[in-house]
Amino acid sequence: MKPILEVQDVSKVYPSDNGNVEALRPTSFKVERGEFVTLIGPSGCGKTTMLFMLAGLEEPTDGLMLVNGRQAIGPGADRGMVFQNYTLYPWLTVAQNVLFSATLKTFRQDGGDLKAANERCDALLYLMGLEAFAKAYPRELSGGMKQRVAIARALLPRPAILLMDEPFGALDAQTREEIQQLTALLTRHEGTTVLMVTHDVDEALFLSTRTLVFSPRPGRIVEDISVPFGEVRTLDLKLTPEFISLKRRMLGLLRRESDANRQDYLQRLLQVQEPEISHVHPRPKARKESQ
Amino acid sequence: MNQPSLTLQLRRNIPTRRYRVLAVVGFALCLAVWGLISASAIVDPVFLPSPVTVAHTMTEIFSDQTIWSDLWVSFVRVTIGFLLSAVVALPMGILIGSFKPIEAILQPVTEFVRYVPVPALIPILMVTLGIGEESKWALIFIGTYFQLVLMVADEVRRVPYELLQVAQTLGAKRGEIISRVLWRSAMPGIFDALRLCNGWAWTYLIVAELVAANEGLGFRILKFSRFLQTPKIWVYLILLGAIGLLLDLLFRALNRRLFKWAESGK
Q1: Which residues of chain B lie closer than 8 angstroms to A55, CB-CB?
Q2: A161, A267, B92, B243: most buried by Cβ count inside 10 Å?
Q3: Any alpha helices (H) in A85-231, and if so which ranges?
Q4: Within a domain: residue A119?
Q5: What does the pLDDT look like over A167-184, one tens digit per residue?
Q6: Cβ within 8 Å, pair A89-B163
């Protein structure tokens, strides 16, 4: 069977006034149906850029992205997206937010069944523990609830891939664990393929079946780690020696990469030290003090 | 515990009741200052009549038919001019706020026209459109359109970009994003822009009526001044202020009713 996602030599370069900024080196990977893949790395490593390119919200500078063997160009409901910030439509109720995709032209053109969509909306809200809030407006919800609605909204059109950009970053620890478990349950139940960006090692290991570790900018994949903790996971997993040893390995990887990066920056800083310092402290004054 | 504190706390809310009481106090203070000035006779009573005189004149004026017809004529003028302006400014503002090339073509020109003092256009308007209703609608239109269109565009640009991106990932096309996300999200702000522009429309109405008219509130004020009937002028000024305040409150109440969702939650 074909992989659900194939990324071939995708790179991203941002043009800027002082030359081009390379955000992502040519990157390739494949994702099989039903995998839960996390992209992890320091900020600015291009993992979010990768996700936005997959969502069709940004264009790759080079390379090819195939979803179900077909090239993905521009955004589409086959790649659902959950954003880091709360992005519910405040003028729509919870149910209307979840059903948003089913009220669009593309849904009708693709022969979508509104009644089935309504039932699916009810089911998703029920699974997310939000059935009592179907008619509530986003301003009445807590942060965790908003993000659960956003996930339900992205899942409604049954996307081939669910893309998530640090979706739980703004939540408190307890809410985060709850919603992590819900997400795992729901996506496993539906067999959804998930790509999630995170910088939280615990989260990556607890949720994913596979983790791609990115280097600091310009980003590239430095390691492709499979996370062999089985299908059903409980919070106790986080306390097992296997989990902790894998966590240690990943933290080591991330630190090594950022240390290397820091060394690089230090080198560059030392090279420009002289003129930099003279700007900050006028030389004559410094001399006077030393005498 | 529930003692109202008398200290001024930065941006802290106060109960609605106390807010209203203080608003009335504000009006009462103005009235008191006015009364004191006219009683001390610093200003010639011909120019600043006492509150009592004005109150008497008010009952006189309101028992006459003229003020009602003036009010009606002015109201119709301002409403037509304002509606014309809104009907054009809303779609144009949405286009300018949605598409950068359209913004580049229209916004700098609009900014330029916006800084041309509108009353300076009156001679041209009278030459081209005459001294009938059309020139008054045109003045109100010009006075409000160029402000409103930029305010609408601003509101559209203020819609968080992620709300657009979400719509795209859910399968929405350009037209749907404009009508179902940008417009919907900007609506409360646009409604507020309409409220402000309505106030300006009244200003330009009076300007137009002061220059050339044979009925309406502005015309009447000019006529009173010719006969040095200052108490009557004051009554009309107070009426204009009251109309403005009333319309403002109406717009705000409507805004709250229509856009409950936009109220800041927890």
Answers
A1: 165, 169
A2: A161
A3: 94-98, 105-109, 114-127, 143-155, 173-190, 201-207
A4: no
A5: 998 889 899 999 999 999
A6: yes
Chain A contact set for B259 (CB, 8 A): 91
What are the DSSP calls for B127-166, one per residue? HHHTTSHHHHHHHHHHHHHHHHHHHHHHHHHTS-HHHHHH
Q: Which residue has the tokens 């417009």?
A: B183
- Residue A10 belongs to domain spanning: 5-91+153-290
Domain assignment present for residue A115? The answer is no
Distance from CA of A55 to the nearest CA of B (A): 7
Return the CATH number at A35. Answer: 3.40.50.300
For chain A, the average pLDDT equals 88
pLDDT of residue B2: 55
Mean pLDDT for A276-284 is: 50
**Half-sphere exposure (CA, 13 Å, Cβ side) for A221?**
20
Nearest to A87 among B163, B261, B265 (CB): B163
What interface predicted TM-score (ipTM) does this complex get? 0.86
Cα gap B114→A164, rounded to integer Å? 45
CATH C-level class of B54-259: mainly alpha
Backbone dihedral region for residue A16 (phi beyond 0: left; psi -120 to 50: alpha; all else: beta): beta
Tell me the count of A-B CB pairs closer than 8 A: 79
pLDDT tens digits, B188-244 = 999 999 999 999 999 999 999 998 888 999 999 999 999 999 999 999 999 999 999
The closest alpha carbon to A164, from A178, A177, A180, belongs to A180
Whether residue A42 lies inside any domain: the answer is: yes
For B248, counting Cβ atoms within 10 Å of its Cβ (0-12 exposed, 13-18 middle, 19+ buried), the class is: middle
* Cα Rg, chain A, nearest whole Å: 22
Distance from CA of A189 to the nearest CA of B (A): 21
- The answer, yes or no, to whether residue B154 has pLDDT greater than 50, is yes
The 10s digit of each residue's pLDDT in A190-209 is 899 999 999 899 999 999 99
The 8-class DSSP code of residue B234 comes to H
State the angle between helix axes of B217-226 and B66-98 in degrees (0 to 180), rounded to the nearest 10: 130
At B207 the pLDDT is: 92
Is A134 within a domain?
no
Cis peptide before A218 (omega within 30 of 0): yes
Q: What is the pLDDT of residues B32-77, one digit of tens each?
A: 999 999 999 888 888 899 999 999 999 999 999 999 999 999 999 9
Number of domains in chain A: 1
